[in-house]
Amino acid sequence: MARWEPNARGRLEDAALDLFTERGYDKTTIAEIAQRAGLTERTFFRHFADKREVLFGASNPLLGVLTDAVAAAPTDTPPLDAVAAALDSAAAVLQERRSYARRRQAVITANEELLERELVKLAVLAEGLATALRSRGASAAEAAVAAETGIALFRAAYASWLAADDTADLAECLHSAFATLRTLAR
Amino acid sequence: MARWEPNARGRLEDAALDLFTERGYDKTTIAEIAQRAGLTERTFFRHFADKREVLFGASNPLLGVLTDAVAAAPTDTPPLDAVAAALDSAAAVLQERRSYARRRQAVITANEELLERELVKLAVLAEGLATALRSRGASAAEAAVAAETGIALFRAAYASWLAADDTADLAECLHSAFATLRTLAR
DNA sequence: TAGGTGATGTCAGTGTCTGACATCGCTTAA
DNA sequence: TTAAGCGATGTCAGACACTGACATCACCTA
Description:
Two copies of one chain form a homodimer.
Chain A: H1 8-23, H2 30-36, H3 41-47, H4 60-72, H5 79-96, H6 98-109, H7 112-134, H8 140-163, H9 170-184
Helix pairs in contact in A: 1-2, 4-5, 4-7, 5-8, 5-9, 7-8, 8-9
The first copy, chain A, binds a DNA duplex through α3.
DNA-binding region (chains A, B): 29-48
Pfam families (chains A, B): TetR_C_14, TetR_N
GO molecular function (chains A, B): DNA-binding transcription factor activity; transcription cis-regulatory region binding
């Protein structure tokens, strides 16, 4: 028999999302999360840098998806199109977990602190996109503008996707946002 | 003689920026800030919701500048142009306090927590811009995309302005970012 | 079989932030 | 003129987030 139950990190994530949903982020202490996961408070902080991070551990993979997709785009693809393609890949990943995304987003939008952390994660994605674009030969200015714009459109699309009914498609929301931008920027 | 020295809030802001610059945000306690301002820790929290907020109290006025400028733009101005004009007004405000902005930004960029708060403030500005655009007749989608895009460009422009030498002009950086976008979105 | 490794536990802090109540110059109304 | 109330501040106690130092002990490896 193993000394510890496996997947401590995952148990903490599950316990946290459950408790946050049940009684809210503020009203949940780390001791309670740890207890539900059968661990101690100190162990929580060995897996997550702070209380918020327990909700954002899964957002790291998206960075890889985005940069890979940018790198994989044909060399002659214009920057904004490469960004659009990358966001499409990310959209496919998220589309699969719509109900989880909804549940998680409900907790996040109910709390200012969590919103802050989400914005940081998106800014990190923007930075990653910009770096990937530069290594494809885009200028610093082009890369920054294309990446920031892409993430801005993603934010708008993500919000309308989650606000819409269950049949909505994130990729479609994204395409619609890009189309709107191209009209506005004409 | 008045019972208290005047401008407690301003004294706290000054003391905080000084201490953050001297020894860093993390290494400064609220008790120290309060003491330098001749007040107590409890009073600090009556003026600012949390430790970070002492650096962001001055960013609220920008919201008014932006929404006023959008409202003041001629009715036939396209959304993205109205946003550009509004950001120009904000740029003029910031251009006057370049040295203060630099000092403050040095503290902010040195600390992840503070970066988070700054992103939230920018998101609030984006929300305000979108609301102002909608009340001018823009659709929800147009307003969201134009506002988010405008703030994204502002972020890029602000970064390059602060990175450049003392002769740089924020409005020019902004125009350059918009020009880059219009090229990319062609 | 001895010793090292690594995830976890225990404990004692520091600092942020909050609620409850006290203080006391100043303002307002009788 | 005075009593009552207001409002910015102080005092105090405490919950909770987060950290450093050290202990534990199943498991692996030489």
